[in-house]
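Co-fold these.
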Amino acid sequence: MQIISVKDYQALSLQAARLIGAQVRLNPDTVLGLATGSTPVGTYKELIRMCAEEDLDFSNVTTVNLDEYYGLAPDHEQSYRYFMNQNLFDHINIDKEFTYVPDGLSKDLEASCADYDDLIEFLGGTDIQLLGIGHDGHIGFNEPDDVFTAGTHLVDLTPDTIEANARFFKSADEVPHQAITMGMKGIMSASTILILASGKAKASIIRKMVEGPVDPQVPASILQLHPDVVLIADEDALSELMAL
Ligand code: GLP
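Predicted complex below.
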């Protein structure tokens, strides 16, 4: 795992956007795996600026998002589809037909999860998969468990995750208790994985992810098995690493 240590959130966002921007310039047909949460918002802002001011061209880019709340419609303000439109897609020259987010209203989950995995396989995996990390080590919505789950699947969110994500809703009661998430096979199919972490609150889980054993109770620890992972983190998020 390559670790890029930066001063703060602003520097992290610039660095991540530069890497993604370079990939899109080198290969205009890039397939990007995208994430939600607050961490990538600065990266998306910078990509929007690069599109507007530096001719970064998304017209041939395909995107595949990690996850979606189960039961939320695409136009629900807290759905991840809505988040992606608001924070990125509505502001760049991407063809929204080629932006994929799991269907939170699916009536046939088995079929729609299998279709999502087929899509990722058809695309040949993502070129860059962008990730944040939950306090419990979840990536996408792959929560701590006894096993790593390979395929796209429905998950029960942990009380911790529901609480952490309640800040985006009017109250914790409104946070859906389930989500559809890309599984570890989809995430690990990326050529490059770019994981972002900012702030002291992430320091302990970043240490477990990088220096602990590979353990499904710390889902992000699976990234130790991927040949090309770049962790971009600020000094606070890296503050508990022994090796630095
Ligand atoms: C959610 C998302 C994750 C994200 C995590 C951390 O649970 N499903 O993909 O990494 O939040 O969010 P934040 O970046 O706001 O800390």
